[in-house]
Amino acid sequence: MDEITNVIPQARRLTLRRMRIRVETGASAGAEVTTDRDIVRMGSNPHNDLVVQDDTVSRSHAEIVRMEDGVLLRDLGSTNGTFVGPIRVREVYLPETQRFRIGRTEITFESLDEVVDIVPSEDDRLEGLVGRSVAMRAVFAVIERVAPTDLTVLITGETGTGKELVSRAMHARSPRRDGPFEVFDCGAVASSLVEAELFGHERGAFTGAHQGRPGVFERAHRGTVFLDELGELPLPVQAALLRVLEQREVRRVGGRDVKPVDVRVVAATNRDLAAEVEAGRFRRDLYYRLAVVELQLPPLRSRLEDLPLLIPHLLATAGFDHPVKDVSDEVAEAFEAWRWPGNVRELRNVLLRAIPFSAGSTLTLDALPEALQEATPATPIATEGEDGAGLPLPGPDEQFHEAKDRILEAFERHYLETLMERAGGNLSRAARLAGVDRKTVSRLLKRHDIR
């Protein structure tokens, strides 16, 4: 999908992947499956997506799998084989329409992929999300179009842009809305325990496992799993996650039995996963499975026209009683001048911290942190080798991903050093100021060898 930004206010395009598999002959003639899932299994077992009543069809006979380079028909070791025309096949790529046979039963495959225009929504609110900018209304339009499907979604964007809120909106607007919604932060759990947390474990599977416990995927059966900070997932667990997505079943750590799971996966990251794939830190096949729809959230600094809506919304949803309804003109000017490295999460934290220092219904400038009080719209003068934000400029022969990684690295280090200085070296206070959990700050400090 094209990147959604507020630079060019025109329709974007989104490819929706769907397929239809229909039984043409035999006792199950007329049975069909129309789905946006990437894998469809066929056989006589009732657990298959397409159940075929035919004594020459194996319990798990064949599957159709959408791959990065096409749609694959694969025989699953059946007794009587899978045929395209007179030829028995193990694996074969299918054209847009194809008739094939499993056992004595004829089946037709048809691709229903469609490209749709995404026109910005007319609404400026959606399931707790707020914005009148073209960028946000385009995000709303994608959510409205994709939420009713089972397509996996990868949400990208900087920290604090609202990735979890978008995932919750996807769930709330989906047929799974009455099912569970499970959140898992891939960067907040020790790498040795990630697999057990995701897929569950049996008693005695590892030290401290005194009893069996279901994992995130089991608990989310018939609901949605939100995988936050996906880029932090260790490579061995990436392979296990790919198996779960493809097989739609889990095996607990230390266990032998497999359990079918029916979940919709929404993932989020602030990393450039395409670059991570090229660097060998993220599996290409898993990236393809998860990024069926890739939705990029805009940073707050690029949609400052949303501030007049965001501010009263965040004040009204503070979670405690207070008299503040809006901000003064001076505060509004300071907010427009600030770069918001922590995005909407930072804005919310600034407002909540300022409420106790405000008198009356209007938040005034003296209630803000000193740095924000001094914010001005003037553009800083760039020093040699830096842009106006104090970040290093790309080298003349530097490739995009190299420059991006280096600049993001410099930004993270500068932000963390400033954060720890403001927090007086206190990790818990730093986490509160940044609007993230303590483990995230600790992990970033360790990555940058700070403290």
Q: What report would you give on this structure?
A:
With 451 residues, this protein is of the alpha/beta class. The protein has helices at 134-146, 163-172, 194-199, 216-219, 235-247, 273-278, 284-290, 307-316, 329-337, 343-354, 370-373, 400-422, 427-434, 438-447; strands at 12-16, 19-23, 32-35, 39-43, 50-51, 62-67, 70-75, 82-84, 87-89, 91-94, 97-102, 105-111, 114-118, 125-126, 129-130, 153-156, 181-185, 223-228, 249-251, 258-260, 263-269, 293-296, 326-327, 362-363. A 6-stranded antiparallel sheet has the order 3-2-12-11-8-9, with no helix packed on it. Strands 5-4-6-7-10 form a 5-stranded mixed sheet, with no helix packed on it. A 5-stranded parallel sheet has the order 17-18-21-16-22.
The coarse silhouette is elongated
Radius of gyration: 25 Å
Low-confidence stretches: 1-11, 378-390
Question: Pairing-aware structural class of the strands and helices?
Answer: alpha/beta
Number of separate helices: 14
Helix content: 25-40%
| Widest sheet, order of strands | 3-2-12-11-8-9
Largest sheet: 6 strands, antiparallel
Number-wise, the strands total 24
